[in-house]
Amino acid sequence: xxxxxxxxxxxxxEAMLVVGxxxxxxxxxxxxxEDLKLLxxxxxxxxx
Amino acid sequence: MSSFGPTxxxxxxxxxxxxxVMLTFxxxxxxxxxxxxxxxxxxxxxxxIAEQAVGKxxxxxxxxxxxxxxxxxxxxxxxxxxxxxxxxYKVVKEALGGTLAxxxxxxxxxxxxxxGPISGVSAGQYIVGLVNETFVTADVHGWIPRxxxxxxxxxxxxxxxxxxxxxxLAVTIYYWRENTKGIQESSEKAxxxxxxxxxxxxILMAWSVxxxxxxxxxxxxxxxxxxxxxxxxxxxxxxHSFPExxxxxxxxxxxxxxxxxxxxxxxxxxxxxxxxNRELAHPKLKxxxxxxxxxxxxxxxxxGLSALLSVMLIPDAVRVPVYKDNLISGLAMYMWGxxxxxxxxxxxxxxxxxLILSGAVNTAxxxxxxxxxxxxxxxxxxxxxxxxxxxxxxxxxxxxxxVILQILTILASRGNVYVLGEAYAFGVIWxxxxxxxxxxVLRFKYKGDRGWKVPPNITIAGTEIPIGxxxxxxxxxxxxxVNLATKSVxxxxxxxxxxxxxxxxxxxxxxxxxxxxxxxxxMKDHFQLLQRDTVDxxxxxxxxxxxxxxxxxxxxxxxxxxxxxxTDTREQDVVVMTARVSQFGTAAYGLSSxxxxxxxEHSEIFLLERYF
Lengths: 48, 612
Prior knowledge:
The structure holds two protein chains of two kinds. By secondary structure, chain A is mainly alpha-helical. Chain A is 79% helix and 0% strand. Chain A is built from one helix and no strands. The radius of gyration of chain A is 18 Å and the shape is rod-shaped. The mean pLDDT of chain A is 85. Chain B is mainly alpha-helical. Chain B has a single domain, classed as Up-down Bundle (Amino acid/polyamine transporter I), CATH 1.20.1740. In chain B, 65% of the residues lie in helices and 5% in strands. Chain B is built from 23 helices and six strands. In chain B, helix 8 packs parallel to helix 12. The N terminus of chain B is likely disordered. The interface between A and B is medium-sized, with 29 and 40 residues.
């Protein structure tokens, strides 16, 4: 029983890591493109 | 901003208290230099600590952490575009309330308290490593006198950990004295340190590439579960439940997460971005983003690539046993070229390491002093701590408390960088987690203007879903939770420290609330605080020929007393002006009254009222 609970908790953590990593890579790419635009003077403001 | 008493009741003396903030600004290059003094200093110890914990594939995790720091940086840029003055404390307070804000600032204090000791001890390790290596080289050439040889019963050497403790204590005490006097490390000094560091990084990278071409390299095992080799210490509480090596194979991705958690201290220092944001020149947001780009690229190149190079170039036989605590020195020693050149470069590495690491000790004292002053302005820390130093006027009691805690940490660590690094990661990861979680909550709680948002965001049925922010928060939260289980020293020390600070904050707040309740009631009877965008004679209704009395500290108002005793206020107005000279900048999007008009000024008005 204890091992099942631990396994479920571990799977939740792993799912968080996978989803978070994929999203963070998207953040990295999109913010990287914005950074390049800023450095080369073609920035578009990302206002709300 | 101005505040003034009621003007209509004719039976009262008219009182005008004009307050303003004098601002100093710095360029984004200087801001980046200040942050890098903290962030880039981790390059000197992060990989050594990570490799001891997870094995030879550690550099890949350091590289992953440095790439992830680009995303964490984006969260900080968004938070800084909303709140100029506050960092983690302000963001969490706005999003999750006072209790969690106190908890998050406790974790941040743990981070700052450990920044000093780990940097000081690491600086000591680099110096002692060089001295001992020089002794060995000198002995080989027969340059050590026989008498000295006899004293040490062989090649002279210094006890590495003990001497590192002494050096760390000396650096900490030096900066304690400097900060008590109020002499802070200027942005100019930070810029110079980073310029020298850049020269070292360029030489390091160029020489490493040359060495790779000339002498070849050791392959760095890919970051796969089968390549992870956790030590007993690096599994923490899990080591009681699972055989040492099997946990990574049982739960493949969990092993990756554990290894990532052991490398996360490489991005410590991002919080400093929130601190320097206040100092940035106009246009603040644009300059903040530029500074953040410089910081991210620089730390990726220096921390990430030097970690990879150290495993590629330093042989396995000596990398961890000899150079685990001074890995960049080891890298210098295994370059391709004559020994004398390598020794000279190693000496240069040690000088740069000492400069940047001792700069981080200073940053830790300044940062923790700034954070505690910030929370004490909100009444979360007892007024006793803010009592100014008799001679220098600095918040010496806060500085003393921080330095005492740092000295105790240095002594308790006995010069062991690994233990310090393990504990340090607790404060780093939890302050980031609280910050990202709060920013996520604020996306739904506060829908007003903000300067910039972490991308991507999609809108479904009129509701904006912050995918990017949510993703970063997920990685941070999962890492923080795993670290709770795998970093037993950090968990025990961090939780104990945070609970103690949380209790101090809560009790202080309760005492302050009771203490100030009466004073505030008294103020309401006599003052009506109004705010204006501009302060001028006409808008305040001051008659020409008034007496202007500048004040700074409510403990030193004798000159005001003299003016009041020698002025007929029926004939002539007395205008009291105070200008808070702030080391930090102002908002590109406007400061709230609470941000500019702190408890300090409230106390000042209350005491001024007693004079009238």
